[in-house]
Fold these 3 entries.
Entry 1:
Amino acid sequence: MLKHRGFPSRLPSTDYQFTIRRPNPRGVTEIIRRERYNDRKPADRRADAGFMKALWEQFGDEPFERGNLDAGRLSWLFGREVVAAEDPFDPSSYDALLKIEEAVARSSFPEAFEEDDW
């Protein structure tokens, strides 16, 4: 499992996790598409935006390996802002390649692409 050095482990001052420390001994957690409903808590929305900002700063528009990125956090963005970068795609692999759909991500999380540090 690739560990993304320099990637934040969580949203600052919260328990919203962005990375995992070690592979799951019971198997790799599958990335699924989770629906984001309008009634989500503001803290959950900030976590999504913070994760998108970290992804963009680390990888930009280049494909990236899932590695130690948290499957739960990726699942909130998967199928919209983050998509598979390979075919066939294995959602249960730490080696799976993903990429950011920049136009969709900028539309969904404009604050994540602002130059100012939040």
Note: The mean pLDDT is 91.
Entry 2:
Amino acid sequence: MRGFPDKCVIDTNVLVVADLFSNSEKNNEISKCCIEACYKVIRHVMENGGLVIDENGEIFKEYRDQYKKSHLDKGQPGPASEFIKWVMKWQWQWQPNQVTRVKIHRLNDTYKEFPEHDELEKDFDFDNSDRKFVAVANAYPGTHKPPIFQATDVKWWGWKEPLCDVGIKVRFLCPDYVKEKYPKKKSKPKT
């Protein structure tokens, strides 16, 4: 895949959308281009490595829970299941060129490694399941923080600028979908 980073963080919704690759008749809303982009990202990582997850296993657990859910919902494993099995392989778990594990520290409802930025702090939609991906990208020890691949979670569109301010790039695999849905999400009152 052209322009693919050496290291990356992959949000679980990328796996969910990639699973539509083999079962697109279940989808009415997400474009074929978006589904293919998600599929290509997970295929690239499986073939070349570069996944960044947390040492504590929170991202791994979320992937595994999605794996269990996809088996229960469909009965037939799809591309996401194949990716999750790849992540679960013992030989990849401890090879930094395949899977890099980064230490993050839970701090109440967030993480010590979650970046400080006014726009991120006042956004109450930033739940823990999203925060761990940001904390992992921010805690990465290399000279460049790995980008976070994002599919259809529209909340991330509002976070892209503040995250960029702290050196974390969000790569949207379904930008047309997110751009269209974000204004509607933003205009809904928070409960």
Note: Residues 91 and 98 are 9 Å apart (CA to CA).
Entry 3:
Amino acid sequence: MGYKSIAIDGPSGAGKSTLARKVAQAMGYLYVDTGAIYRTLGLAALRRKVDPENGEAVIPLLDQVSIDLRHGADGLQHMYLDGEDVSAAIREPEVSRYASGVSAIPEVRAFLMEMQRDLARRNNVVMDGRDIGTVVLPQADVKIFLTARAEDRARRRYEELRERGSEVDYQTVLKDLLARDEKDTHRAAAPLRQAAGAVVLDTTGKNLEESFRLVLDAVEKGVGA
């Protein structure tokens, strides 16, 4: 029997990472946060003052920087940029814009996609992102499109950032989220969209535990657990 793969896609702030991580823990699967990989390259561009939407400037970074994904003793995914653990740094608001920019470049997506597919070939995985079910793992055993109203997603992101000590205001977070939605759904390379055969789950108004049960039930039905 081959390894099982669960693809969870959806817009920014939908709770993909948190819920995918919890589902992976419950199922005993490897969790892969693909957005963190793009955020790491986005951070590299930010630190080097490279325009994230300039492909000619970004593509050389693929050979210049080292991006590594490791799972620590805590079972969590950690991202390393040139040997530095940047798992916290990539979550800063400014990195989101850079991540969105670099992820729209076809050469970047092709380069990083093999890293993601290789993990799925060697493990049972729960993988989240924006094009997992449509591009990265189109043959995934279960495909979920996770969404929620923009206001709900912005509130969750705002609270998350405040807990980390970031000085942000809700309206700015909402504005940035809507801009990210627009860019992700209209980009030429692997735009955000619902995969064929995906189960659509809306977590608007639901707390973390309610959302988790919703996703876990869909996954268990899909893999026959």
Note: Strands lie at 5-9, 30-33, 67-71, 77-81, 84-85, 125-129, 142-147, 199-202.
